Amino acid sequence: MNGSVLILGGDGFCGWPTALHLSSQGYEVAIVDNLSRRRIDDRLGASSLTPIASIQERLAAWRSVTGKEIAFYGIDIAADYGRFRDVLADQRPGAIVHFAEQRSAPYSMKGTDEKNYTIDNNVRTTHHTLLAMVDLALDAHLVHLGTTGVYGYSTVDMMITEGYLDVVIPLDEGRSIRDTILYPTQPGSIYHLTKSLDQLFFQFYAQNDRLRITDLHQGIVWGTQTPETRRHPALVNRFDYDGDYGTVLNRFLVEAAIGYPLTVHGSGGQTRAFINIQDTARCIALALQNPPAAGEKPRIFNQLAETKRVRDLAEMIARMTGAEIAYVDNPRKEAAENELAMSNQSFRDLGLAPILLEEYLFTETIEIVGAYKDRIDPELIPAQSLWTTGHRPGVVTNRAGGRS
Amino acid sequence: MNGSVLILGGDGFCGWPTALHLSSQGYEVAIVDNLSRRRIDDRLGASSLTPIASIQERLAAWRSVTGKEIAFYGIDIAADYGRFRDVLADQRPGAIVHFAEQRSAPYSMKGTDEKNYTIDNNVRTTHHTLLAMVDLALDAHLVHLGTTGVYGYSTVDMMITEGYLDVVIPLDEGRSIRDTILYPTQPGSIYHLTKSLDQLFFQFYAQNDRLRITDLHQGIVWGTQTPETRRHPALVNRFDYDGDYGTVLNRFLVEAAIGYPLTVHGSGGQTRAFINIQDTARCIALALQNPPAAGEKPRIFNQLAETKRVRDLAEMIARMTGAEIAYVDNPRKEAAENELAMSNQSFRDLGLAPILLEEYLFTETIEIVGAYKDRIDPELIPAQSLWTTGHRPGVVTNRAGGRS
């Protein structure tokens, strides 16, 4: 046995495979999820490329192949503090993994309602979790999923550290002091902003209430299946390729599969951090095995395997599939080109040997995009969210004559 | 004419005298307030030492003595984005002054409900304001009241700068870069935390949407009346002395008036920043006259007249009134002693010559505490909020035999 863990947002893209991975590792796992991600799909008229089963079917399938039970609580943590607190009081888990935030940057910038929803949901879910731990005097280890996007994409030639930064503060008369500060974040969307806000919540609650917190700033997750989700068709993980939730790599794979050019936003000079979904689950397990002590400031690890320039990624997939590349307007407000060097030393020190794009991307393409190609709806691919009203979105003309 | 200004939270302790001051200066003033501060008084069983009139009586009195109209909108900005947006769309003010946040640190730490309320109200009010400005393409100057408490009370011997900090970031191979960063805040309560969160909202919206924002980190406000509130009895400002909303100076004045010892929390070695309420209103007027340009990062000014050690303040009042001093447990989780040197250069450059405690405190004592002494309820004075469950509050024995 590995103790008990409550997974907030355990029905989502990262939460689900993590729940299965921890269950297979001997943790007693329970999931809290309001299934909001499925409802957002309904609103957007989008759906996972892979046909995902209901949470009940998922849990039944896991029981049938492993004999292990995962409990499920259908609670909206942001809206219903009381019921969430009751579950926590009843379970008193040794650890909590918090994925329960709206996680799409384009969705968070879509309009007033989506901005409000993202702030409300993400701020309240994080705060209710911290508050319930204090309220119940629950000495659990809280592991939270942040994003590498909080750092902002600097054009400065420096290695981005893990959550904290050593600085020298010049004073008068030639004096100076050294300090280690929370990395000064420059979030680029409402979604990323919520993860910066989360950092301040964690700093406060670790200091005031001695909560034990690990915050994982994760890169863009790619890949779909893990050893656990492959064990039964009803365990399959989601694969999003719509303009809001589909990240750049998925968009390229889907475009290649249906003979579209790969739509690169702007010059493709943006460098991003990436990690495979299997490593997401492994990193969470590593973080759980290495909790901070009470009174320690929050541990912040960068959770990424590698950084890649978007156009290099497009070229890699073009070589692999024969697809063409189309450069379209960038809907985001960001620098056209940026370097990105980011430390992942903490997880490497804990033994992570991550899966790299070069070696595994072809498997992903065949296993998912090849298998479910017939389910692709080309209308869903273009990004529709504008960061500001002065921008135009990166829409590629639908050659079949649809919208432009 | 000085343009139009919408004052969010214009019925409160700082908002009300600011509304009158700006009205007297020729601004067309409108107030949005949900009157939450009055309802919190009801819940706490507390009330202002000065008998404050209803908002309707206040506005009628102002009209009667000046002939000037101030419009009032009874809207809960946090709860009702739609109605707030409608007012903003209708008014399209040239400036917005944002006081509409729960502003007591002890209240924000009282319990789960108060923590949740403070986060929800303060985060949503700030975000709804920013969002409505973007939504309506309203190029107004937003002036927000922050707190000097965001900086944390450092024991380091350095002058706290105004919102930003120049740092040197050491890199490898002896290289280093210079940067100006948002001051790394260390808020000490949920209330203070919300003002740190606000800073990140402002950074994002100034960068992404080119909103023009001035954030004023204000010290502890003391004093009650201003030239405008003295013009009619129904215009009198609030004076809070209860354990939640009464700040240290008011507590001392009330204790002295009823023959109690002045209750100093801990050693009284805490140094705090102070400003008189008349200067609050003047500083807002100065900020309004000096707006940032679109695209500029938020201007952050420290709004304080002076810093004082709490026990020095107690001794000053003891000398003035003959009161004794009692040292009681500190309910807050903070360093026993701290230095505090804080720049107020921006407002001095704009011409502020602030009122100092030494020269004006005696007037305040006679004018307010002397005049309304009979309304003092000694039961309300002690602080009741604990920062963590390991602390005991700073309760002084009620010599009349009440609770201890």
Salient structural properties:
Rossmann fold, 404 residues, homodimer, seven-stranded parallel beta sheet, 16 strands, 12 helices, three-stranded mixed beta sheet
Write structural notes for this entry:
The structure is a homodimer of 404-residue chains. Chain A has 404 residues and is α/β, with parallel strands linked by helices. Helices cover 35% and strands 19% of the residues of chain A. Chain A has a single domain (4-380), classed as Rossmann fold, CATH 3.40.50. The first copy, chain A, contains twelve helices and 16 strands. In chain A, the strands form five sheets. Chain A has a seven-stranded parallel beta sheet, with helices on both faces. Chain A has a three-stranded mixed beta sheet with strand order 10-12-14. The longest helix of chain A is centred in the N-terminal third of the chain and has 24 residues, at 112-135. The radius of gyration of chain A is 21 Å and the shape is globular. At the A-B interface, helix 6, strand 7, strand 8 and helix 7 of A face helix 6, strand 7, strand 8 and helix 7 of B.
